[in-house]
């Protein structure tokens, strides 16, 4: 072997060095490529894991219809394996609803041809799972031209959440609409401000309060409801609420409807949404508060003026109010009450003053009274104090948890009640022992009270009356006891008139046993009616006897009158004959008479004249009593009548030495009547005066008058009459008794009165013992 040249060695060395360098480079490059491959494999593994855990399953559809899909797609489509071709995916057996599968096929075809993206929700057959398919053309790195990549999402939970959110949105929308309607319908102004404090929403009440045309105009003009107070504008107040992050309310004045009113304005920060506000009219509330304070003051003044003791306790059971009678009634100290003691401490003070009822276990009694604060209803009880004072205690729980106590001193009422009970017992005993039968019927016609006489008269059992029967039922039960049963209706109607019409009525009723009762129904002030019955059986019998006797007397009087009249005429005939023969003898027809015979004849004539006058008087008196006295009516000159009477009486007056004076005034005048009868009355009065006067006495005949009547007076200064004589001087019975006893009973004065009364006038007689007598006749002009 030939040795190598140095050049060859050098070239070999260089070749080996290059080869070694290339090997090192190849080794290093392999190591780097291995590291990069491992890195890429790691990234691929991570991407695979990421795709596997992604919420969407990728599907690549090649132009020839082949499908590359994740295994999850088979599970979502309820298949054993994922579809390998597009035809499997969009076929009825592909696992999708037929309509959804057909729509998905059309969308994929559109993406392949037009290169547009799409999103389509689909559902599996018989599954509640909702799949959301998002498709787009695939890039060249994924598939050839015409490929489509699909991302399929399981949107079941998301769709449920979306549906729930839609429901919430609908609810919120309805709530917002309701809230907007509520704000709009609110009777007080409401508004909303944007974060820059400008008005953005106002309701109708706001527009009306600021006299705006519409909400749009109010918002555009920025019309504020209230004014700035102390430099604080409404915008500044709203900004302050935002700064403090809490609602702020304030009382500010506002002019609404031309009136100044006090408004309570509240600004409520809403965060980034701005500020809401509303205003409530406090004017009526403020007036109500003022009125409440006024009423409370008036009530306190009223309670302070009551005669009853009043104490009011607050919810904490401390004394808040008391009046002067309360202090006086319980002997309490004003200064100690000013400390507002507790209810229990006040009871202790009242016990120390011995102004509480005595109790063995006072603490237990006090605890029971403390429960008054918790009682749902008012309570009332009576206290009897050691000194005999009777107190009526009224406890009224108050709505605020307090208590109002009213103490009424009923000592006097109790005493009066006791006295009244005594009087009632006395009245009942008196009522039950009255001779009258008494029943009291109430306004509804029921028997309310009765006495034993009422029960005995009607013969009704006590048990029947105790049932308080109505008057109708009572009368039906007792009408058989009446002589005339229909009179029960009269009694019933009288009771009804007394109770309902308030009219007093009376009558009488007869019983079948012969008893007769007078009854009366009298309305009482309390609306009831008093029914009284009085047994008048004996009175009726006596009345009948007196009536029969009166009829007999009247008949006797008629007989007497007829007898007197007949006798007067019968006596006048022989008397006229006697007088005629006496006048003939006095005239000498029987020859000359001796002086004694002439005196006898004169006596006969005088006696016959007087007897004739007496007969005329008796006849006139009888006719006057019978009402048949004849009076002629003509104009009578009373002066002439008085002069004639005076002339006739002058003879008897001179014979007895009596001074007869005549006084006739111009005012006497005339009357309409009978001159003879008037003269006859005066003759009787003059005769009576002359007869009873002693010699030397004076008799006056006087006449005067006025426009309505004429007055004729006969007076004397004789012995006069006492009151007993005046009382019987015109009584016919007394005159008859006097005549029976042989006393002088003249007919002059009674006849004169009858003659005056027959003319429509009067005769008055006045006399005093030792002072004389005056008779006055007054005659009317008419």
Automatic annotation (TrEMBL):
Is Transferase one of the keywords UniProt gives this record?
yes
Presence of keyword Kinase: yes
Q: What class of enzyme is it?
A: transferase
Sorted alphabetically, which Pfam families does this protein's record hold? HATPase_c (PF02518), HisKA (PF00512), PAS_7 (PF12860)
Print the keywords alphabetically.
Answer: Coiled coil, Kinase, Phosphoprotein, Transferase, Two-component regulatory system
Annotated ranges, domain Histidine kinase? 566-782
Q: Per its UniProt record, what InterPro entries does this chain match?
A: HATPase_C_sf (IPR036890), HATPase_dom (IPR003594), His_kinase_dom (IPR005467), HisK_dim/P_dom (IPR003661), HisK_dim/P_sf (IPR036097), PAS (IPR000014), PAS-like_dom_sf (IPR035965), Sensor_HK_Regulatory (IPR050736)
Reaction(s) catalyzed by this protein? Answer: ATP + protein L-histidine = ADP + protein N-phospho-L-histidine
Write down what this protein is called: histidine kinase
Species the sequence originates in: Sphingobium ummariense RL-3
């Amino acid at each position: 072997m030939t040795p190598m040249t140095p050049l060859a060695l050098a070239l070999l060395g260089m070749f080996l060095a290059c080869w070694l360098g290339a090997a090192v480079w190849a080794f290093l490059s392999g190591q780097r490529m291995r590291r990069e491959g491992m890195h890429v494999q790691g990234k691929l593994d991570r991407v695979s894991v990421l795709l596997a855990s992604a919420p969407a399953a990728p599907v690549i559809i090649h132009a020839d219809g082949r499908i590359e899909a994740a295994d999850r797609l088979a599970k979502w489509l309820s298949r054993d394996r994922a579809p390998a071709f597009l035809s499997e995916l969009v076929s009825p057996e592909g696992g999708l609803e037929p309509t959804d599968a057909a729509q998905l096929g059309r969308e994929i075809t559109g993406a392949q041809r037009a290169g547009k993206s799409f999103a389509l929700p689909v559902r599996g057959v018989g599954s509640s799972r909702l799949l959301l398919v998002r498709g787009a053309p695939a890039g060249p790195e994924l598939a050839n031209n015409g490929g489509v990549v699909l991302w399929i999402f399981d949107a079941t939970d998301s769709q449920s959440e979306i549906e729930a959110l839609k429901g919430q949105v609908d609810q919120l929308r309805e709530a917002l609409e309701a809230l907007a309607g509520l704000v709009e319908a609110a009777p007080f102004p409401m508004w909303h401000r944007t974060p820059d404090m400008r008005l953005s929403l106002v309701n109708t009440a706001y527009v009306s309060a600021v006299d705006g045309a519409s909400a749009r105009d109010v918002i555009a003009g920025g019309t504020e409801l209230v004014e700035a107070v102390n430099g604080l504008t409404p915008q500044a107040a709203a900004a302050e609420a935002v700064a403090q992050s809490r609602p702020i309310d304030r009382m500010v004045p506002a002019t609404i409807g031309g009136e100044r009113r006090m408004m309570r304005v509240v600004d409520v920060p809403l965060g980034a949404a701005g500020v809401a506000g509303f205003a409530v009219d406090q004017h009526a509330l403020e007036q109500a508060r003022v009125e409440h304070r006024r009423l409370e003051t008036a009530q306190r003044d009223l309670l302070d003026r009551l005669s009853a003791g009043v104490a009011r306790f607050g919810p904490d059971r401390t004394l808040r109010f008391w009046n002067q009678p309360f202090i006086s009634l319980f002997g309490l100290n004003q200064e100690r009450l000013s400390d507002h003691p507790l209810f229990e401490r006040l009871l202790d003070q009242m016990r120390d003053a011995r102004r509480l009822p005595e109790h063995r276990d006072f603490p237990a009694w006090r605890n029971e009274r403390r429960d008054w604060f918790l009682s749902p209803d008012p309570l009332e009880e009576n206290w009897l104090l050691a000194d005999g004072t009777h107190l009526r205690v009224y406890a009224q729980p108050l709505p605020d948890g307090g208590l109002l106590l009213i103490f009424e001193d009923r000592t006097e009422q109790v005493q009066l009640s006791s006295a009244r009970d005594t009087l009632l017992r006395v009245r009942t005993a008196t009522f039950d022992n009255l001779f009258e039968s008494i029943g009291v019927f109430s306004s509804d016609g029921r028997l309310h009270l009765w006495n034993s006489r009422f029960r005995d008269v009607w013969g009704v059992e006590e048990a029947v009356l105790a049932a308080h029967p109505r008057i109708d039922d009572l009368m039906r039960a007792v009408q058989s006891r009446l002589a005339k049963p229909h009179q029960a209706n009269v009694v019933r109607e009288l009771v009804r008139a007394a109770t309902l019409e308030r009219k007093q009525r009376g009558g009488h009723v007869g019983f079948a046993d012969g008893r007769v009762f007078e009854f009366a129904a009298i309305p009482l002030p309390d609306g009831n009616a008093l029914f009284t019955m009085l047994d008048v059986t004996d009175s009726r019998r006596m009345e009948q006897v007196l009536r029969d006797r009166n009829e007999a007397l009247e008949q006797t009087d008629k007989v007497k009158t007829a007898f007197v009249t007949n006798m007067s005429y019968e006596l006048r005939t022989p008397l006229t004959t006697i007088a005629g023969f006496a006048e003939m003898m006095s005239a000498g027809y029987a020859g000359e008479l001796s002086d004694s015979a002439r005196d006898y004849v004169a006596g006969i004539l005088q006696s016959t004249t007087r007897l004739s006058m007496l007969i005329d008087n008796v006849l006139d008196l009888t006719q006057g009593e019978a009402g048949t006295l004849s009076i002629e009516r003509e104009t009578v000159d009373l002066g002439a009548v008085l002069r004639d009477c005076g002339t006739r009486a002058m003879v008897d007056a001179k014979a007895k030495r009596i001074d007869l004076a005549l006084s006739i005034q111009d005012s006497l005048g005339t009357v309409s009547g009978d001159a003879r009868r008037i003269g006859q009355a005066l003759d009787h009065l003059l005769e009576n005066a002359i007869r009873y006067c002693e010699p030397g006495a004076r008799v006056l005949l006087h006449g005067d008058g006025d426009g309505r009547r004429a007055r004729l007076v006969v007076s004397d200064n004789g012995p006069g009459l006492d009151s007993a004589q005046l009382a019987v001087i015109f009584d016919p019975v007394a005159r008859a008794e006097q005549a029976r006893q042989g006393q002088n009973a003249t007919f002059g004065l009674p006849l004169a009165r009858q003659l005056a009364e027959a003319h429509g006038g009067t005769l008055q007689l006045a006399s005093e013992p030792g002072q004389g007598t005056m008779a006055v006749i007054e005659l009317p002009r008419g």
